[in-house]
């Protein structure tokens, strides 16, 4: 999962291992809480449909500074 600050305020979180599983929140704590709930619901739905649960992917996040 990754979390980024939104330009308009708040946060956006995405779980690359679960396509379409993403949330937004006003605070980091709210965003993490909502993502936890979203992941649980996503996995419950996969189980209900007897579909395989994707294995977590290893993701590396890096930032670079580019002169303006």
What is the fold's blueprint, element by element?
Layout lengths: L1 E4 L5 E4 L7 E4 L2 H21 L20
Antiparallel strand pairs: 1-2, 2-3
Structure write-up:
The structure is a single chain. This protein has a single domain (1-68), classed as Double Stranded RNA Binding Domain, CATH 3.30.160.250. It has one helix spanning 28-48; strands at residues 2-5, 11-14, 22-25. It has 68 residues and is an alpha+beta fold. A three-stranded antiparallel sheet has the order 1-2-3, with helices on one face. The protein is 31% helix and 18% strand. It contains one helix and three strands. The model has no long low-confidence stretch (mean pLDDT 94).
As for the CATH topology, it is: Double Stranded RNA Binding Domain
Q: What's the CATH architecture name?
A: 2-Layer Sandwich
End-to-end distance, in Å? 29 Å
What number of domains?
Answer: 1
DSSP helical segment count: 1
General form = flat
Strand order in the sheet with the most strands: 1-2-3
User: Would you state the CATH class?
Assistant: Alpha Beta
Average pLDDT reading: 94
Q: Name the helicity range.
A: 25-40%
Number of strands: 3
| Radius of gyration over C-alpha positions, nearest whole angstrom | 14 Å
Identify the quaternary structure here: single chain
Percent of sequence in beta strands: 15-25%
